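Bit of a strange request maybe. I'm writing a small parser for structure token strings and I need a real example to test against, not something I typed by hand. Could someone generate the tokens for this chain?
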Amino acid sequence: MKSIKPKKFYWLFTLFMMMAMFLAACSPATTTGLALEVDVEEAYSLREQGAFILDVRQPEEWEAGHIPDATLIPLGELENRVSEIPQDETIVVVCRSGNRSATGRDILLDAGFSDVTSMGGGMNEWANQGYEVVTGP
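Reply from user aminoacidic:
Good idea to test on real output. This should exercise your parser:
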């Protein structure tokens, strides 16, 4: 049986460790284990547990109907307004159908927020499931 020379082993081990660190750094999962996207039922449950609901739609969409006690910050303004969002709370990002909320979630993760998820299906699915929606400003 042929043995691996210590120098060759060192380089293989180093290469393996560098690849592992690279993959871990590129992983999109949040540090708390919260899924990147949750369904409407899970978003409702998180809201009931005190999660901060961030709506990233436009004001006219918001006025047509939004989740009670949610906070509106349109997606185009989010990067400049992250200081308005609590870093010590679970955050559920919502939009009309789930696309903009995923982008909003990624903006927050990139800004250092760790406990952030996006609601799949958006307000369309929230309303279809019969959850409470309020209108107006």
